[in-house]
Amino acid sequence: MDTAFTEEQEQMRRTVRELLARRCAPDEVKAAVLRPEGYDTELWRTLAGQLGLAGLALPEAYGGVGCGTLELALAFEEAGRVLLPSPLLSTAVLAAPLLAALGTAGQRDRLLPRLASGALTGALVVPGGALSPALGLTGSGHDWAGGGRAGGVQAAYRTGHAGEGWRLYGEADQVLGGHSAGLLLVAAHTGGYARSRTALFLLDCAEGDPDGLVRTRRTALDETRAVARVQLRDVPATPLGDSTGDMCGALMAAGPRVAAVLAAEAVGAADGALTRTVEYVRTREQFGRPIGSFQAVRHRLADVYVQLQAARSAAYYAAWAADRPGADRTDGEAATAGGLALAQGLEALRTAAAEAVQLHGGVGFTWEHAAHLYFKRAAGDELLLGPVHRLRARAAERAALFELREGEGGAVRWPGTAA
Questions:
Q1: pLDDT, average across residues 257-263
Q2: 210, 233, 278, 319: which could join 70 in a potential S-S bond, CB 3.0 to 4.6 Å?
């Protein structure tokens, strides 16, 4: 593994950082999340159309840049630094790669260029709280798609006077970017008990929502991540790909890339919180001297810095592992590295945000202060993607760390030890 970034990667990082530093001050972030879309549409056009971030990891044949997970992680690290509200995560990380990997030639030709240009945004619709298990980050079950009346989506093939085709029923909460996305990828349970499977369906809403589709933006702890409730009442849909076979494996294979990118974003947010805290303690005086000169404050910030650097290294390694040729992205090293990197990134963000609130003193405890943007992101991400202990438990399960096996002579031994 070459740990040095290329000149092109460094230039991309600098370009994104400089643009976001000019356009994403805390007050601008707070104003952007109040818009109906939940983000600054002009900034989105710049990021997607001029910088190509929406198609950064898509093939050039479809208008993308043709980069890999590492470049995507670098861009998201800078987005996390300023807590950028945008459809970049739901479009470039969740929806577009699944369409590129599983869609038919016609579906790719029709939709991917629009996603790459930013003219169309996407969202992955899974039941509330099921995003992390669906990607294989906190579980490996295949029964999360159809949650019955408590949530979830069912698909059924209908024939009759209304036409022949697939219909979707049910609802999903906490859909990232789901209220404004022009393309929905819906994970739905079908086949009944006899042939139970989870399939993916396309809903093209660019020209307006079809009859029976109701989308409502939900109030969220972290307003920089817009989430929605998506309700489906006999909505016609098109299967993603050539069939309605089980897509759980494909979703889990996408997990390592998603985890690596989210880990890098969490690292960027932690770095942003730490930078703001360091700047504050250098200027805030107590007893006639900056509070940053006190040894106790220095030690606390040093601990955050060490944890942050470890999380950054883990995120970069996970991004490299996700694109390594021949890697097992369902249950191998790439999946384990991604889950652990995300756990470490979320933990570093939680620590950095807590120290930012504490070391800013009384002003840090007010909801209006920028420190609370990072605090809310830390809490919201762990609710949506974690918790941390489940991410680590899933990684330990993959590595069989706590699995006892019977050795020679009936002796019980740990995996990897001599019999």
A1: 97
A2: 319
Percentage of the residues of the chain whose pLDDT score is greater than 90: 74
Let me know whether 381 and 262 are in one domain.
yes
Q: What is the number of other CB atoms lying within 10 angstroms of the CB of residue 340?
A: 22
Sole residue written with tokens 């070391």: 359
Give the separation between CA 317 and CA 208, rounded to whole angstroms.
41
* Largest Cα–Cα separation, the chain: 82
Q: Are residues 197 and 148 in the same domain?
A: yes
Closest CA to 126 of 174, 73, 196, 70: 174
CATH number at residue 209: 2.40.110.10
pLDDT of residue 257: 95
Domain carrying residue 110: 7-119
Q: What is the pLDDT of residue 158?
A: 87
Cβ-in-10-Å burial (0-12, 13-18, 19+) of 319 comes to buried
Spatial separation of the C-alpha atoms in residues 83 and 28, rounded to whole Å: 11
- Is 0.85 surpassed by the pTM of this model? yes
Angle at 46 between CA 42 and CA 52, to 5 degrees: 145
Q: For residue 269, what pLDDT is reported?
A: 98
One domain for residues 326 and 224: no
Residue 404: inside a domain:
no
Instruction: Please give the average per-residue pLDDT across 317-331, as a whole number.
Output: 82
pLDDT(349) > 80:
yes
pLDDT tens per residue, range 203-258 = 999 999 999 999 999 999 999 999 999 999 999 999 999 887 888 889 999 999 99
